[in-house]
Amino acid sequence: MSNRLFEGFEPVSETAWKQKIQMDLKGADYNETLVTKTNTGIDIKPIYHSDSAPQLNIPARATDNWFISQRIYAGNATAANKKAKDVLNRGSEGVLFVIPNKEIDPTVLLKGLPEYGIQIHPQFMDLDYIKQVHDINPKAYVHIDIINQLASDGNWFNDSKKDHYNYAEFIKSFSAYFSQFTVNTSLYQNAGATTTQELGYYAAHLNEYLNHYCDTSKEHDAGVYEAFAKAEKRINIDTSIGNNYFMEIAKYRAYRLITKAIGNLYSIDLKCYITASPSLRNKSLLDYNVNLLRTTTECMSAVLGGADTLYNLSYDAFFNKENEFGDRIARNQLRILKDEAYLEKINNAADGSYYIDTLTKQLTEKALDLFKMIENGGGFVQSLFDGTIQRKIKESAAQELSDLGNGKKILVGVNKYPNADLPLQKEYELYPFVKANPRKTLIAPIVPTRLAESIEKAQL
């Protein structure tokens, strides 16, 4: 576009804009009228201007493009393998296997699948099993997070000492991207943590690993640090996408800035690979078709924020068993974003947005401040044992639930515009609510909870 179109217009400063806004308010309070407060501690202003916009250097994606994947629960190796081949022929560019136990034969599970695009998420820690996977496909990505195991279950896989030893062996034993530190933050978001908390807990969670393995006085751990410090190592981040569109775009950009900042503490040029999927937090049984709209905008925000791999959540994932219709719709939502909205054509779509740049900077700063507080309290694991992390997430979740109840937070079909034509069913294929599992644990586990559960239960 020719600059001559604007030759007749003088540039308007941020100060001039604010003066004009204040004049048009005719005495109304600027902060009360136009500034929106959020649960992240960040106030959203009515205007963002180049005069005060930060200059950010966001690290690029780990890849040249973003990839469509599909999550497959591998409770049966033969069935999971068959499904993986099917979805790879029908629009998916990779698969993410959730493996519940070591009885699942990796030879059967991975037979005939491509080398690239395979993510392995074992729900157990077994080095012999991982070695089998490596022998079959050394270019797979294995995601193991022993701290997430503690936070979500309340117990380690085995115990702290053995888990850290096994994790060290895992990091040291394999080259390239097969073995990396994984930080799973989905738990925090799905339990009700704010975006600031999610990012701050990520920083502290990551630092827990680097701090544990960087002590060169420990011969074993020194080997881990040296292995990880090589250029080909990076951080796997498994995330859930929240519903605040612009805040989520900024969140994914902040993930990369925080990763780099934590790496600098250890003199490592640290990069990350981000896998994202829509959160269950805001999904509902009430007017469940709206879940399709939620997942679409959430996936779009993650793409624009720079996520590397996305796997979508089917609209009925939490109340129906895996089914062809739900999986196909979820996969095609991503194909539309990629093939018809052309979101694969540019890697830095959010660059230059004064609003998003400012949000990114504010989120990064607030997250690193929270990280420092956690470190002053003894670190992330110690905070879990103290119950501090659990308490803070519960407080945030309770505030969000209160906002839903008084109408400050809107869920269409739940507390606004309910659909009388889609009443709740008496029974569902899957139990859609939090299940109690009384047992002895080292810490109180962090429990994911959908926001609409209390309203749904009341109606049932």
UniProtKB/TrEMBL annotation:
Pfam families in the cross-refs: MM_CoA_mutase
Annotated Methylmalonyl-CoA mutase alpha/beta chain catalytic domain residues: 143-420
UniProt xrefs under SUPFAM superfamilies: Cobalamin (vitamin B12)-dependent enzymes (SSF51703)
Any coiled-coil regions, as ranges: none
CDD domains per record: MM_CoA_mutase_beta
GO molecular function, one term: intramolecular transferase activity
Top-level division of the source organism's lineage: Bacteria
UniProt-recorded name of the protein: Methylmalonyl-CoA mutase
The organism's taxonomic lineage, starting at the top: Bacteria, Pseudomonadati, Bacteroidota, Flavobacteriia, Flavobacteriales
